[in-house]
Amino acid sequence: MEVGERVKIFAPRSLVLVFSVACFISAPAFAQESGDSWLSGFWPLSVEYVAEGTYVGEGDVQRGPRKTVTVFDEIDSTLGLVLTPRTKFGVLRLGAEWERFSFGFSKQAALPNTLQSFSTVIGLDMQFSDSIIVRAEGQPGLYSSGLGHLDWDDFNLPFFVGGTYIFSPNLQLVLGVSVDVERNYPVIPAAGIRWKLGPQWLLDAVLPTPRLEYEMNRYLSLYAGATVKEASYRVDDEFGDSHGIPRLNNAILTYSEVRTGAGFDWKISRAVTFTGEVGYQPYRDFDFYRAEVRYHQDGGAPYGTISLHGAF
Question: What pTM was computed for the model?
């Protein structure tokens, strides 16, 4: 069976796993709203959760004029759970996240079919005044090309620090910096704005998901925007030898992608939101920058995303 075929077979299984876990996580939120008092003791802390699955259709990447990887698809699956207890210092953020990118590459492609991370979430939200709120958060964990060769070399600690200045109830300014020592550019600053343009319109121009939202009613919102993703992963010790490029053994790969699309947020309940989105992926980049091997976008692809997320 070809690698691409295995990835396509894995797609429905991956999405079913993601949303089975999501339903288990969100079940207490449904019950909590229905007034089951015993759950208040079972879930004593505030919780944020997300379960998301994205399928990207067949696209191409290129390394030079003669080295092209064509007609491969992608599955991006994410599960996350964060507890948010309040302390005298601020709101702690303690949890875990799993994300897996699966690609339908051929055996000849010098790219890993899987990029995967298991990380903890450790952060703190602090309010310094009525107008200034700061979040510092790190995600220490293992960032690798699969479960078969986990090693302490896969450990990484990306983190970010961001601050929000509340200019008015309708306007907030956001500044932040992202740090990843394994990335080609370890420090990346960013700025954004959150502006309520009218009773139903909101411009939420903040990375990694800038968007323009329109609230149809209290339960349903429409939006158009983008999703920006970037992370660094370490491939195994024999990856380069098996693909005829020895300098890729144990190498760091920075993967980046940008999706642009439109979708909806449906608030099923106060604690559960279902999101659906479709669009086009115009940018994708696989960069072994230390080994000077880079595959960049040569042909975009359509995508679809479904997500279950919320807080309770």
Answer: 0.86
